[in-house]
């Protein structure tokens, strides 16, 4: 397997677009913490509020709790601006409404870098990905181009934005690049631990943040100089 290249850092602002609370925290948050420590401006957009993500909790109770936990999780990696859309957790559909919502956020925030989750059918190692991740990741990629075309979604009343340089998908099985998170690894663990109610409802390896994230970071680091690292599939716009 080929070595990974370093993610370019010639940008100053980014928008993270993911489906659920906790999505970026399973691997990508270490990069976010590194970049906010460099002074980069990073904001989050979540397609849903995670209302159907805890089997033992009614959606009406779960949604505000998961929103609160996501805000705390973002604060742990230096992010203070977090927006939530109201697409339905578990049944998010790829299509024009989702693309429109993401394109609107790109036009509002005007990032140079868009970061999303894995939108491939599987995870590294072969585990099956879920439909929400695939829909939101693919819509985020398409919305970058939508946001730069004045004739697409003119009803938004927002000036087009053509300034996105890169799109990166975290934890893709087709990863091409990586980020050294040695100095920001502890922040990534704290960010995932902020999802307390969600973690308490889990079982297995994913319920214990430090060893789970460390094993991921070490595995990526085997292709990136032996450091703790997190991987991305990088698309140049």
From TrEMBL:
Question: Residues of the signal sequence?
Answer: none
Quote the Gene3D superfamilies the UniProt record gives.
LmbE-like
Arranged from A to Z, the UniProt key words for this protein are: Zinc
Where does the chain cross the membrane?
none
Q: Which InterPro entries match?
A: GlcNAc_PI_deacetylase-related, LmbE-like_dom_sf
Q: What is this protein called?
A: PIG-L deacetylase family protein
Alphabetized SUPFAM superfamilies for the sequence? LmbE-like
State the source organism's domain of life.
Bacteria
